[in-house]
Design a protein that fits this description.
By secondary structure, this protein is of the alpha/beta class.
């Protein structure tokens, strides 16, 4: 299983329009951050996590092949605003999109023409699936467990993703599906998480989680919050995403972070 970070920035992106701050003036490509999105892939399965307004630009850097499913974390524009640009992928068939009830309703309002009784020719062909926290489902080689986090007072979804090809472990003479490895947890826009959700994150190998900046924010984690959360989860490696220009320059921030907790960057590929 491999993960490609298509975008690692916050809702305004980096550089931010009209800003001349130290970070926005950087010429380092690691400091150019599109809105948050990621591809999770095996040799036969391809998932997209969120589809924001930069999707067209992001996906042009990737091979053109079928997207087996799109996982939506929540209904904010910076995470759903690129859905109309999935049209070219409909030549492979309907696009399966997975969202909780709130995000599902948001998509119906954002793209009403995709769900009309008489659809205009050429609109995205979307098969919209309603999902719920703690109800796992499988897409191709990947098993997905939705978990709930709070984006201020809005409940949104994070995802634990495991490669089902690695799930069979011998227990006596019978195979068991209780041990799924490797495991990825992807969480964005979190401010808080209920302690009860942590049991679903046990055994995480790679954690991807939001870290907006160091100054406190009402609906997002700070860098310090993200580091503390990573320690609670106990992941082998943590990558920080959804970062604003206020976080500082990539190389300087990473120099101050532990080696096992680092800022991700656009275009980065990691393997599990």
């Amino acid at each position: 299983m491999r993960v490609t970070f298509l975008g690692t920035g916050t809702s305004c992106g980096v550089p931010t329009i009209g800003c001349q701050c130290y970070t926005c003036r950087s010429t380092d490509p690691h400091d150019k951050r599109l809105r948050c999105s990621a591809l999770v892939e095996t040799d036969t399965t391809r998932l997209l996590i969120d589809c924001g307004p930069d999707f067209r630009q992001q996906i042009m850097t990737q091979p053109f092949r079928k997207i087996d499913g799109i996982l939506i974390t929540h209904a904010h524009y910076d995470h759903m605003g690129g859905m109309d640009d999935i049209r070219p992928y409909c030549q492979f068939g309907e696009i399966n999109v997975y969202a909780d009830p709130i995000a599902r309703q948001g998509m119906l309002q954002m793209l009403p023409y995709c769900f009309a009784e008489h659809r205009y020719p050429g609109v995205p062909a979307i098969q919209l699936h309603e999902i719920h926290k703690h109800e796992a489902f499988t897409i191709g080689d990947l098993n997905i467990m939705p978990v709930e986090v709070m984006h201020h007072d809005l409940p949104i979804l994070g995802y634990r993703i495991k490669d089902v090809r690695c799930q069979m472990s011998e227990v006596g003479d019978a195979p068991s599906a209780l041990s799924l490895q490797p495991s990825l947890v992807y969480i964005t826009d979190m401010k808080t998480i209920d302690d009860a959700e942590l049991s679903y994150l046990e055994g995480t190998d790679v954690l991807v989680v939001n870290a907006l900046r160091e100054k406190p924010h009402h609906s997002h984690q700070t860098v310090s919050d993200a580091v503390a959360f990573a320690r609670r989860v106990g992941a082998s490696q943590t990558w920080l995403i959804h970062s604003s220009h206020d976080i500082g320059r990539h190389v300087e921030v990473n120099a101050q972070l532990p080696p096992d907790i680092q800022l991700a960057y656009d275009g980065q590929v990691i393997s599990l």
